[in-house]
Amino acid sequence: MISNPEGADLQQSNPASQESAPAALSDLLVLDLTRVLAGPTCTMLLGDFGARIIKVEQPGRGDETRQWGPPFTPSGQSAYFLCANRNKQSITLNLKTEAGRTILRDLARRADVLVENFKAGTMEALDLGYQALRTLNPRLIYCAITGYGQTGPYRDRPGYDTVIQAQGGLMSITGPADGQPYKVGVAIADLLAGLHATAAILAALHYRERSGEGQYIDIALFDAMLGSLANVASAHLISGHPPQRYGNAHATIVPYQPFATADGWLMLAVGNDGQFTALCQALERPEWSNDERFATNPARVANRAVLVPLLEAELRSKPTVVWMEILLSLGVPCGPVNDIPTALADPQAQAREMVQTLRHSADGPLRIVGPVAKLSATPAQITSAPPQLGEHTEEVLRELLGYNETSIAALRAEGAV
User: Fold this and answer.
1) Is residue 9 part of a domain?
2) Are 269 and 333 within 8 A, CB to CB?
């Protein structure tokens, strides 16, 4: 049973009955040969919607993030691993052994989806690439996630999030205008690649419904990073000018940045001229909305160096919560600049069930961030905690492949599992 942090059973926000509706992806079997964050995020999302996820890990070591800490739980589970591996079963296979590869092939015959994030060419060298597995299962959807993709001059390079953020241009527009480039505080390239992989897999599954055929999906962190540049990349392609860093400000909207208040910080996001007029009303400076330097957004962008100090002086006069009450009552978008504990404890986060408690086999009650998407008929659910290394090896071998205790013992003896 999953519960909220206070121990009360979660109340589902959707009116549809979960007792009668099967999970959206409950008929799917997914082989997860991924580690770290991009691939595990993808397969975790599929698991949230009911797919059976079999996470295949290296014996004795497993996913690298199992050792990435501190912090660790009392039993030694890393917080990093726990963030992206709920709703999965863990088995160990040594793919350097023929027996381990045979088991993977047998699982692939039954699988709907396989996701891997080895360096380009690794699976092919093991005779476990898409073409080899497609001959066993033409309906298999095979998703490969790498730093730079399967083609191009960088295909053989290792792909790490911070390098991708740098090479993909994101760091050039992140950080103080007159300082060094900054990375984003989370592995955003990994997370975006995982989301793109999930969307592509769902599209391939839909196509398979019509055609009966699986297909190969090539996801690159570098591509995901470039795709996320959105309006900034578009601005360069249209204007020919390289985008600049604006710190916490916005290149084309003013005021759109945090401001110091009497007791903290307030994020203002004034997206149109009407909102700016309301802001001026809140500040008791109605004349600013008629000033030709500030009356329109293009004018405010051109005169940000004049306007921003004026706003800074006014907003320091009251606490954040007071400004929020005034501004929100007038329809001005704003919010506090929270730290992580405050954000997770926010009443909105609690109402949306974004922090949930589940029971871990070794650590007991365990708090994790919950699923994002809310579906009325087939909601995402956390049904199991992130697994311990190899926790389900024997169960999967017996249930899916018909191995008995003797054969499993022999596999362990030869180091195949």
Assistant:
1) no
2) yes
